[in-house]
Design brief:
Elements: H1 2-17, H2 33-67, H3 72-100
């Protein structure tokens, strides 16, 4: 049932969003207000979820260090790599949103 609901939501979203970008032959390119709203929502969603991910990662690192302080170098390396990957996804979203508008 969850797969069916997800499939329905994806198809409904595609059916609603596709006419926004439709344009006739030879029509001048015009900026659409829905693109600006989508950019704001996309960046907010990316930044918010990245913040949640970074908080969860930092909490897990603090717990791991409390349990085994001797493993600090390996845990610290994993922390920095994880934070870099999370932040790179947000920056990638930021660049793509500016390219789209």
């Amino acid at each position: 049932m969850r797969k069916l609901t997800f499939l329905f939501l994806v198809l409904a979203t595609l059916m609603i969003a596709s006419p926004v970008y439709a344009q006739g032959a030879g029509a001048p390119v015009q900026r659409n207000w829905s693109v600006a709203i989508g950019v704001g929502l996309g960046m907010g969603l990316a930044a918010g979820l990245a913040g949640l991910g970074q908080g969860k990662l930092a909490g897990a690192v603090a717990e791991a260090l409390a349990r085994n302080p001797g493993a600090r170098p390996g845990i610290q390396l994993a922390l920095f790599i994880g934070l870099a990957f999370i932040e790179s996804l947000v920056l990638f979203t930021f660049v793509l949103l500016f390219i789209r508008t």
